[in-house]
Amino acid sequence: MAARKLLLIEDEPQLRLNTADLLELSGYRVQTAGSGKEGVQLALTDKPDLVLCDVMMPGLDGYGVLQIFSHHPDLMAIPFIFLTAKAERADLRKGMELGADDYLTKPFGEAELIGAIETRLRLADQRRSPANTAHTLGDFLNDVQHRDGLASLAANRVGHPIKRRKVIYAEGDDPTKIYFVQSGKVRTQRENAEGKELVTGLYGPGDFFGYTALLENRSYEDTALALEDSTLCYIPKDDFLNLLFCHADVARSFIKLLANTIADQERQLLGLAYNSLRKRVASGLLKYVRRFQAESGTALTVSLTREELGMLSGTATESLIRTLGDFRDEGIIDLRDGKIVVTDPGRLERLKW
């Protein structure tokens, strides 16, 4: 197999020479350019398999080079790695928004550099390979639901039983996987400085959760636990990221999931800040009912303890109990076998205060 061809764009001569020597010793063919403009011209003349590009350069800087690549049909699919002495979050975000595949901060080690290059070349090969185009998100969801089609994932292909109230991950843990709910119900919650807990998400069969922290490469800021006996599928971090990198439609679907999650949380925060007590309790009941109303036989039954419902609606337990009593007296809910049954969801929807 012919050596892979890399284009190194770096305006500092000694660093450019040293990096090129290292890459050639590692078995790559290397073209070098001392400016952004020269790098673009070289790429158009002799298309590389991957680009390593400095950010801060006179004239056409790295961001400008990437912008040209991302809009040129012959260059846009080439893996692009930024090399930079800057590691500010805003700089990283700007590069990723423009379409950079990776970001190495100077000084970087040999293993770090070669590892990043090998990873990006491998993912680019997978994107081009017809054998690796079978799993869109729709296929993946269908496979999970039928429990027999996870062959494309490397590990943890079986459902894992989780007992009611068991913690799945805790605030401060590092994400190593995302979770898919095969059966049961899961909630996520956060605790403020005063120790007050608030439910931030409800998840049931067919839902993914735990992906936000993984995508942002940070520790969990919430805790997840099972609301009832559940079965979860674990998708390892590397397999999940490979799936995103290899399938644009999967990436778009998860971006949509992330956007919807953020929008839901913003609406919840606004409601907690400005709604009356009755409205907050009504919103908590409706949130649960809407999420799980498709389950046969439990369409309008809220299987939460009073404490859990208080966390969902941002309400003290004592105030919640009084409000539920009012709703029962008004015929909006009923209490059956210790569970809340919403008998008039329309009135909950119409509550203005």
From TrEMBL:
Residues 275-346 form the HTH crp-type domain. SUPFAM superfamilies: cAMP-binding domain-like, CheY-like, Winged helix' DNA-binding domain. Pfam families: cNMP_binding, HTH_Crp_2, Response_reg. Residues 5-121 form the Response regulatory domain. It comes from the Bacteria. Keywords: DNA-binding, Phosphoprotein, Transcription, Transcription regulation, Two-component regulatory system. GO terms for molecular function: phosphorelay response regulator activity; transcription cis-regulatory region binding. GO terms for cellular component: cytosol; protein-DNA complex. One of its GO terms (biological process) is regulation of DNA-templated transcription. Residues 168-261 form the Cyclic nucleotide-binding domain. The modification 4-aspartylphosphate is found at residue 54. This is Response regulator. The lineage of its organism: Bacteria, Pseudomonadati, Bacteroidota, Cytophagia, Cytophagales.
